[in-house]
Amino acid sequence: MRMAVPADSAIEEEEEQGGPTHHPSPPSHEFFDLSTTVDPSYIISLIRKLLPLGSASDDPNQGTLNHNNTEEGDDALSASISNDEHFEPPKNKSENMDVDVSGEVSHRRGEYKDTTGDGFEHSGVSVGENAWEEYGCILWDLAASKTHAELMVENLVLEVLLANLVVSKSVRANEISIGIIGNLACHEVPMKRIVSTKGLIEIVVDKLFLDDPQCLCETCRLLTVGLQSGESVTWAEALQSEHILCQILWIVENTLNLQLIEKSIGLILAILESQQKVLDALLPPMMELGLASILISLLTFEMSKLKNERIPERYPILDLILRAIESLSVIDDHSQEICSSKELFQLICDLVKFPDKVEVGNCCVTATVLIANILSDVADHVSEISQDLCLFAGLLDIFPFASDDLEARNALWNVIARIMVRVRETEMSPSSVYNYVAVLVRKSDLIEDELLNQQLGSTADARNTSLRRIISILNQWTAAKESAENNVNAEVLVNETDVKRLLDCCHKFSK
Hints:
With 511 residues, this protein is mainly α. The protein is built from 27 helices and four strands. The strands form two sheets. It has a two-stranded antiparallel sheet. It has a two-stranded antiparallel sheet with strand order 3-4. Strand 1 (99-100) and strand 2 form a beta hairpin. The chain is elongated. The two termini are 22 Å apart. The model is unreliable at 1-35 and 54-127 (pLDDT under 50).
């Protein structure tokens, strides 16, 4: 039986971490409707200020914005906000920021030349890039609110942003435009307007071919939100050409920018966790393009970083890679390529044996689920790990991290049971039995705490098998200890009281 860890709602939230502080992406949906007193006319005026140069704001074919006063200055804009709450526009992110995409290309965001025809127009007067960015960043933040988001789409913000994405050559303007759409997409009504706006999804997808990391981050975030929404099939249709899928995998495989790695792998995970129609459209060509080997290569790299450098900023990336591989391991017709990889199996076993699990506890839980999935397909691996006491101890160490996840606990007990039925204590030397007992006694507190957790569910059979095997091993050691043939190494002693306590606990909870 396959045991996949259920999808965590934090996926939709994690991609919001590490982003520039002036445009935090929306948290979970319950926070979207925080009460504000921002005057709608202020929001509408901001939308008008984003009109690109040469746009016909009064063109009847484009509709009209429901606000007549377009000549307001900064003081008037501030005054348009209700006196009940002062709204202070957030500060811009620093310009002139060098960010390396692939280790080969570096971009400097310099002064914007609005005399080249790429400037932006407000009431016939060109405004500089800084002012446009300030207005855009305010809308970016406001789009996190459902009320504001719906007001914005009713007042043609999507048409304005589409126009900017078509004509603007500013990477910062592209990033802001896509960021605003990304926040709008987190709400049901604006999402429907996004997918019905002709040409918008196509031009967003086209931004995957930019070489600016921040634009790519926001593009991946928006595509992830789209694939997680009720409109996922529409978004998948826009991604299904080999040219586009190849570009997504190229970004995942080649970028060295940590935020972009996280966002792009998050996009892969969203595809793997999407509905069947999306999987049918996107997964087969992605597998042909080497998705499985790319994920394993990324895991190899992250494990080397974990062992040698311990960089906390990389832990979320490791977690996403493991979740993507785990999702792939339970998809029919595609799991074999994952489950048959000896390299992958060794990597996840190494992670389970990693000593400092507090740092990567969630990753170890996912690794355990992945081991359980692999063992269900490749039973021969069990004999390879049945004598690995370090791995056995590592599995027991994971119990506290899986305490609230019934599926993960099920997988953990399943792996332990598979290992322990291979242990032939009656055929082992006393010292080998002792080594197992030493591990069990050392981890007895973890075992007892887990047994006190009564959320059995489907863990019952595997757990009972494991407990019976533990009891048998402890009894074998007790009998051998009392025998004259028992020559236990003197360096490490097992406390008999601890053995008895663990035995009593196992008897109490075994059936």
